[in-house]
Amino acid sequence: MTPDGQSTTDHFSDPTAQAGAGLGVRLSGAHLSYDDTRLFDDLSLTLTAGRMTVLLGPSGVGKSTVLRLLAGLEDGAHARATIRCDDGGPLTGRVAYMAQRDSLLPWASVLDNAVLGARLRGEPLGPARDRARALLAEVGLGDRLVDRPGALSGGMRQRVSLARALMEDRPVVLMDEPFSALDFLTRLRLQDLTARLLAGRTVLLVTHDPLEALRMGHAVHVLHGRPATLDEALVPPGAPPRDPTDRDVLALQGELLHRLTGAGHGGAVA
Q: Cα–Cα distances in Å, from 11 out to 106, 113, 179?
Protein backbone atom coordinates (compact mmCIF):
# COMPACT_ATOMS: atom_id res chain seq x y z
CA MET A 1 0.00 0.00 0.00
CA THR A 2 1.35 3.40 -0.93
CA PRO A 3 1.49 6.29 1.57
CA ASP A 4 -1.58 7.96 0.06
CA GLY A 5 -3.72 4.88 0.67
CA GLN A 6 -3.53 3.30 -2.77
CA SER A 7 -3.33 -0.47 -2.93
CA THR A 8 -0.29 -1.98 -4.61
CA THR A 9 -2.10 -5.27 -5.20
CA ASP A 10 -2.85 -5.98 -8.85
CA HIS A 11 -4.64 -9.31 -8.43
CA PHE A 12 -7.56 -9.23 -6.04
CA SER A 13 -9.02 -12.72 -6.54
CA ASP A 14 -7.72 -14.72 -3.60
CA PRO A 15 -7.19 -18.35 -4.67
CA THR A 16 -7.66 -19.43 -1.04
CA ALA A 17 -11.16 -17.94 -0.87
CA GLN A 18 -13.96 -20.42 -0.37
CA ALA A 19 -15.58 -21.76 -3.48
CA GLY A 20 -18.89 -20.02 -3.90
CA ALA A 21 -20.40 -16.83 -5.18
CA GLY A 22 -17.66 -14.40 -4.14
CA LEU A 23 -16.56 -11.79 -6.66
CA GLY A 24 -13.42 -9.67 -6.40
CA VAL A 25 -14.08 -5.94 -6.76
CA ARG A 26 -11.78 -2.94 -7.01
CA LEU A 27 -12.89 0.64 -6.48
CA SER A 28 -10.32 3.08 -7.85
CA GLY A 29 -9.96 6.75 -8.69
CA ALA A 30 -12.82 7.70 -6.40
CA HIS A 31 -13.37 11.47 -6.32
CA LEU A 32 -16.24 12.97 -4.39
CA SER A 33 -16.99 16.45 -3.10
CA TYR A 34 -19.89 18.32 -1.53
CA ASP A 35 -19.87 22.08 -2.04
CA ASP A 36 -16.20 23.01 -1.45
CA THR A 37 -15.36 19.95 0.67
CA ARG A 38 -13.39 17.14 -0.96
CA LEU A 39 -14.37 13.87 0.72
CA PHE A 40 -12.30 11.62 -1.57
CA ASP A 41 -9.52 12.41 -4.01
CA ASP A 42 -8.31 9.36 -5.96
CA LEU A 43 -9.29 6.86 -3.24
CA SER A 44 -8.93 3.14 -3.96
CA LEU A 45 -10.19 0.04 -2.15
CA THR A 46 -9.87 -3.64 -3.01
CA LEU A 47 -12.48 -6.21 -1.93
CA THR A 48 -10.98 -9.68 -2.14
CA ALA A 49 -13.24 -12.38 -3.55
CA GLY A 50 -14.96 -14.48 -0.91
CA ARG A 51 -13.67 -12.38 1.96
CA MET A 52 -15.13 -9.82 4.37
CA THR A 53 -13.47 -6.41 4.35
CA VAL A 54 -14.30 -4.10 7.26
CA LEU A 55 -14.11 -0.31 7.21
CA LEU A 56 -13.88 1.89 10.31
CA GLY A 57 -13.27 5.59 10.83
CA PRO A 58 -14.64 8.79 12.38
CA SER A 59 -18.21 9.85 11.70
CA GLY A 60 -18.44 11.91 8.53
CA VAL A 61 -15.22 10.60 7.00
CA GLY A 62 -17.08 8.87 4.16
CA LYS A 63 -17.52 5.21 5.13
CA SER A 64 -21.17 5.07 4.09
CA THR A 65 -20.33 6.98 0.93
CA VAL A 66 -17.90 4.23 -0.11
CA LEU A 67 -20.78 1.77 0.16
CA ARG A 68 -23.04 4.06 -1.84
CA LEU A 69 -20.43 4.44 -4.58
CA LEU A 70 -20.16 0.67 -4.89
CA ALA A 71 -23.94 0.29 -4.84
CA GLY A 72 -24.29 2.83 -7.66
CA LEU A 73 -26.20 5.28 -5.47
CA GLU A 74 -23.82 8.25 -5.83
CA ASP A 75 -23.85 9.93 -9.20
CA GLY A 76 -23.65 13.37 -10.75
CA ALA A 77 -20.84 15.85 -11.21
CA HIS A 78 -19.79 15.62 -7.54
CA ALA A 79 -18.88 11.91 -7.69
CA ARG A 80 -16.90 9.65 -9.98
CA ALA A 81 -15.11 6.34 -9.58
CA THR A 82 -14.03 3.28 -11.52
CA ILE A 83 -15.42 -0.06 -10.35
CA ARG A 84 -13.85 -3.20 -11.79
CA CYS A 85 -14.90 -6.80 -11.11
CA ASP A 86 -12.37 -9.57 -11.47
CA ASP A 87 -14.49 -11.43 -14.02
CA GLY A 88 -14.66 -8.36 -16.26
CA GLY A 89 -18.42 -7.99 -15.85
CA PRO A 90 -20.38 -5.11 -14.32
CA LEU A 91 -21.14 -4.91 -10.62
CA THR A 92 -24.65 -3.62 -11.31
CA GLY A 93 -27.26 -6.21 -10.40
CA ARG A 94 -24.85 -8.30 -8.33
CA VAL A 95 -24.96 -6.36 -5.06
CA ALA A 96 -27.07 -6.65 -1.90
CA TYR A 97 -27.05 -3.44 0.13
CA MET A 98 -28.09 -2.95 3.75
CA ALA A 99 -28.21 0.75 4.65
CA GLN A 100 -28.03 2.23 8.15
CA ARG A 101 -31.74 3.10 8.06
CA ASP A 102 -33.91 0.01 7.90
CA SER A 103 -36.22 1.48 5.20
CA LEU A 104 -38.91 -1.06 6.03
CA LEU A 105 -42.29 -0.58 4.37
CA PRO A 106 -44.54 0.57 7.24
CA TRP A 107 -47.68 -1.01 5.79
CA ALA A 108 -46.10 -4.43 5.17
CA SER A 109 -45.65 -7.26 7.64
CA VAL A 110 -42.27 -8.48 8.86
CA LEU A 111 -42.51 -11.43 6.48
CA ASP A 112 -43.51 -9.30 3.50
CA ASN A 113 -40.65 -6.87 4.20
CA ALA A 114 -38.19 -9.76 4.25
CA VAL A 115 -39.31 -11.00 0.81
CA LEU A 116 -39.48 -7.54 -0.76
CA GLY A 117 -36.56 -8.21 -3.11
CA ALA A 118 -38.12 -11.37 -4.48
CA ARG A 119 -41.46 -9.59 -4.97
CA LEU A 120 -39.86 -6.69 -6.86
CA ARG A 121 -38.03 -9.14 -9.14
CA GLY A 122 -41.22 -11.06 -9.85
CA GLU A 123 -39.89 -14.29 -8.34
CA PRO A 124 -42.23 -16.99 -6.96
CA LEU A 125 -43.10 -15.91 -3.42
CA GLY A 126 -43.78 -19.37 -2.00
CA PRO A 127 -40.12 -20.46 -1.84
CA ALA A 128 -39.04 -16.96 -0.82
CA ARG A 129 -41.48 -16.92 2.10
CA ASP A 130 -40.27 -20.35 3.23
CA ARG A 131 -36.66 -19.11 3.26
CA ALA A 132 -37.67 -15.89 4.99
CA ARG A 133 -39.58 -17.70 7.73
CA ALA A 134 -36.52 -19.83 8.51
CA LEU A 135 -34.20 -16.83 8.47
CA LEU A 136 -36.50 -14.67 10.60
CA ALA A 137 -36.63 -17.48 13.13
CA GLU A 138 -32.82 -17.49 13.22
CA VAL A 139 -32.71 -13.76 13.96
CA GLY A 140 -35.26 -14.22 16.75
CA LEU A 141 -38.38 -12.94 15.00
CA GLY A 142 -40.16 -16.19 14.19
CA ASP A 143 -43.10 -15.13 16.36
CA ARG A 144 -43.43 -11.64 14.81
CA LEU A 145 -44.04 -12.52 11.15
CA VAL A 146 -47.39 -10.74 10.85
CA ASP A 147 -46.40 -7.63 12.80
CA ARG A 148 -45.83 -4.34 11.04
CA PRO A 149 -42.64 -2.29 11.64
CA GLY A 150 -44.46 0.19 13.87
CA ALA A 151 -44.98 -2.56 16.44
CA LEU A 152 -41.27 -3.40 16.61
CA SER A 153 -38.37 -1.99 18.62
CA GLY A 154 -35.41 -0.43 16.84
CA GLY A 155 -33.37 -3.59 17.34
CA MET A 156 -36.15 -5.75 15.93
CA ARG A 157 -36.47 -3.52 12.88
CA GLN A 158 -32.74 -3.83 12.31
CA ARG A 159 -33.03 -7.62 12.48
CA VAL A 160 -35.75 -7.54 9.80
CA SER A 161 -33.47 -5.41 7.63
CA LEU A 162 -30.60 -7.83 8.23
CA ALA A 163 -32.80 -10.79 7.28
CA ARG A 164 -33.88 -9.00 4.09
CA ALA A 165 -30.24 -8.42 3.12
CA LEU A 166 -29.27 -12.02 3.90
CA MET A 167 -32.16 -13.21 1.74
CA GLU A 168 -30.54 -11.71 -1.34
CA ASP A 169 -28.51 -14.23 -3.33
CA ARG A 170 -25.81 -11.83 -4.50
CA PRO A 171 -22.02 -12.31 -4.78
CA VAL A 172 -21.28 -8.90 -3.21
CA VAL A 173 -22.88 -7.71 0.03
CA LEU A 174 -22.56 -4.15 1.37
CA MET A 175 -23.55 -3.64 5.02
CA ASP A 176 -23.68 -0.33 6.90
CA GLU A 177 -23.68 -0.74 10.69
CA PRO A 178 -25.87 -3.88 10.51
CA PHE A 179 -25.68 -4.66 14.26
CA SER A 180 -25.56 -1.17 15.79
CA ALA A 181 -29.03 -1.23 17.40
CA LEU A 182 -28.61 -4.64 19.03
CA ASP A 183 -27.71 -5.52 22.60
CA PHE A 184 -24.28 -7.09 23.10
CA LEU A 185 -25.32 -10.75 23.29
CA THR A 186 -27.74 -10.49 20.35
CA ARG A 187 -25.02 -8.70 18.40
CA LEU A 188 -22.56 -11.56 18.98
CA ARG A 189 -25.15 -14.15 17.97
CA LEU A 190 -26.11 -12.35 14.78
CA GLN A 191 -22.48 -11.69 13.90
CA ASP A 192 -22.00 -15.46 14.06
CA LEU A 193 -25.07 -16.05 11.89
CA THR A 194 -23.99 -13.44 9.33
CA ALA A 195 -20.46 -14.83 9.10
CA ARG A 196 -21.89 -18.30 8.49
CA LEU A 197 -24.48 -17.29 5.90
CA LEU A 198 -22.12 -15.00 3.99
CA ALA A 199 -19.13 -17.35 3.97
CA GLY A 200 -17.70 -17.33 0.46
CA ARG A 201 -19.36 -14.02 -0.44
CA THR A 202 -17.51 -10.77 -0.94
CA VAL A 203 -18.58 -8.43 1.86
CA LEU A 204 -17.82 -4.83 2.77
CA LEU A 205 -18.93 -4.10 6.33
CA VAL A 206 -18.91 -0.60 7.85
CA THR A 207 -18.85 -0.40 11.64
CA HIS A 208 -17.77 1.86 14.51
CA ASP A 209 -17.03 -1.14 16.75
CA PRO A 210 -13.34 -2.25 16.76
CA LEU A 211 -14.11 -5.61 18.36
CA GLU A 212 -16.83 -6.31 15.79
CA ALA A 213 -14.39 -5.45 13.02
CA LEU A 214 -11.78 -7.86 14.35
CA ARG A 215 -14.34 -10.62 14.95
CA MET A 216 -15.78 -10.39 11.46
CA GLY A 217 -13.14 -9.14 9.05
CA HIS A 218 -10.54 -10.91 6.98
CA ALA A 219 -9.08 -7.43 6.45
CA VAL A 220 -9.76 -4.31 8.52
CA HIS A 221 -9.13 -0.79 7.19
CA VAL A 222 -9.32 2.61 8.89
CA LEU A 223 -10.51 5.51 6.73
CA HIS A 224 -9.27 8.88 7.96
CA GLY A 225 -8.50 12.45 6.95
CA ARG A 226 -9.94 14.85 4.41
CA PRO A 227 -9.64 14.02 1.65
CA ALA A 228 -9.86 10.52 3.11
CA THR A 229 -7.17 7.85 2.77
CA LEU A 230 -7.01 4.23 3.90
CA ASP A 231 -4.58 2.76 6.38
CA GLU A 232 -2.96 -0.50 5.37
CA ALA A 233 -5.19 -3.41 6.35
CA LEU A 234 -4.95 -5.18 9.67
CA VAL A 235 -5.32 -8.93 9.10
CA PRO A 236 -6.63 -10.78 12.17
CA PRO A 237 -5.46 -14.39 12.60
CA GLY A 238 -7.85 -17.29 12.04
CA ALA A 239 -11.27 -17.40 10.44
CA PRO A 240 -14.28 -15.29 11.41
CA PRO A 241 -16.27 -15.13 13.54
CA ARG A 242 -13.44 -15.00 16.06
CA ASP A 243 -13.70 -15.46 19.82
CA PRO A 244 -14.04 -11.95 21.31
CA THR A 245 -11.88 -13.05 24.27
CA ASP A 246 -9.05 -14.37 22.09
CA ARG A 247 -5.74 -12.82 23.17
CA ASP A 248 -4.62 -12.16 19.59
CA VAL A 249 -7.89 -10.38 18.83
CA LEU A 250 -7.60 -8.26 21.98
CA ALA A 251 -4.00 -7.38 21.14
CA LEU A 252 -5.04 -6.23 17.67
CA GLN A 253 -7.84 -4.21 19.22
CA GLY A 254 -5.18 -2.08 20.89
CA GLU A 255 -3.52 -1.43 17.53
CA LEU A 256 -6.87 -0.63 15.93
CA LEU A 257 -7.79 1.82 18.70
CA HIS A 258 -4.37 3.43 18.24
CA ARG A 259 -5.22 4.05 14.58
CA LEU A 260 -8.77 5.21 15.31
CA THR A 261 -7.69 7.76 17.90
CA GLY A 262 -5.56 9.40 15.26
CA ALA A 263 -2.01 8.49 16.24
CA GLY A 264 0.16 9.34 13.27
CA HIS A 265 -2.50 11.14 11.24
CA GLY A 266 -4.27 13.57 13.54
CA GLY A 267 -7.74 12.05 13.30
CA ALA A 268 -10.37 11.76 16.00
CA VAL A 269 -12.47 8.85 17.04
CA ALA A 270 -16.19 9.07 16.25
A: 44, 38, 31
Single-letter amino acid code for the residue at 94: R
**Would you list the domain boundaries of the chain?**
1-8+19-94+196-263, 95-169
What CA–CA distances, in Å, run from 201 to 16, 178, 191, 196, 210? Answer: 13, 16, 15, 10, 22
Q: Which CATH architecture has domain 1-8+19-94+196-263?
A: 3-Layer(aba) Sandwich (3.40)
Low-confidence ranges of the chain (pLDDT < 70): 1-21, 76-77, 263-270
State the Cα–Cα distance between residues 4 and 56, nearest whole angstrom: 17
Which of 69, 108, 85 is closest to 21 using CA atoms? 85
As a 3-state breakdown, the chain gives helix, strand, coil percent values, each rounded to 5, of: 30, 20, 50
How far apart CA 161 and CA 149 sit, in angstroms, is: 10
Torsion over CA: 105, 111, 117, 119 (sign): negative
DSSP 125-192: HHHHHHHHHHHHHHTT-TT-TT--GGGS-HHHHHHHHHHHHHH---SEEEEESTTTTS-HHHHHHHHH
pTM of the model: 0.87
**Residue 75: exposure state from Cβ atoms within 10 A (0-12, 13-18, ≥19):** exposed
